[in-house]
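Morning. Coffee machine broken again, so started the prediction first thing and wrote up yesterday's gels while waiting. Chain of 228 residues, entered below exactly as on the submission form.
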Amino acid sequence: MTMVALLFVAGCGDDKSTTPTNRSPQILSVTVAPGSVPAGGVAVVTVSATDPDGDALTYAYQVTGGAIVGAGASATWTAPSTAGAHSVTVTVSDGNGGTAQGNGALTVQAAQTGITGTITAPAGVQADLRNMLVKLYESFGSYQADAPFVYVAAQGNEYQVTFQFTGLAPGLYYLDAWKDMDGSGTYTNGDIWGVYATGAWPNWTVAPISVTQGNMTNCSAGLIVFQL
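Came back before lunch.
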């Protein structure tokens, strides 16, 4: 009887659960670039997150003002029409009950007259669009001559960037963008190029952007971006 009891206890001691415990994801950073835009301007929200179990992550965004579009680790945030301080809350989920939250901030300035937009890398193209050169022209002739009167370096992440031109006079403008991928200083195969136009690649026509007093014209929808 004693032997039987001892064997029973030993057997119970070896009975351990093999069900793994899910570990929640971690948010490393939430970046809003640029951190300050005019009313109606656009910023890119970039989230860096990891999961210790290697689970696929999903992202959900909520903002206190304006509108945000994005389902992955990058989203575009269009500022509201009035000045103020706003925040974005990002919830990252691993699909197994684990979540993490992070926050970012955006300062919205008073309404200005200008142009804003978002540039997204072409599908299937490995590119780093950060500091992409966005050029603005006062006429079609100056566009043809590649003689911009002002230019800016776009801000964001490798695959999506935004730009702002402020203090413009009402009127018509032309716009293109160029990422010098090889650092040659000249247009070469492999560079990323974009232009505001009508139509679709490869059948497109350069078009003017109309700017009105007190408004930031968002030209994102008319941008055609491709690899040379």
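The longest strand covers residues 99-109. Going to sketch it on the whiteboard this afternoon.
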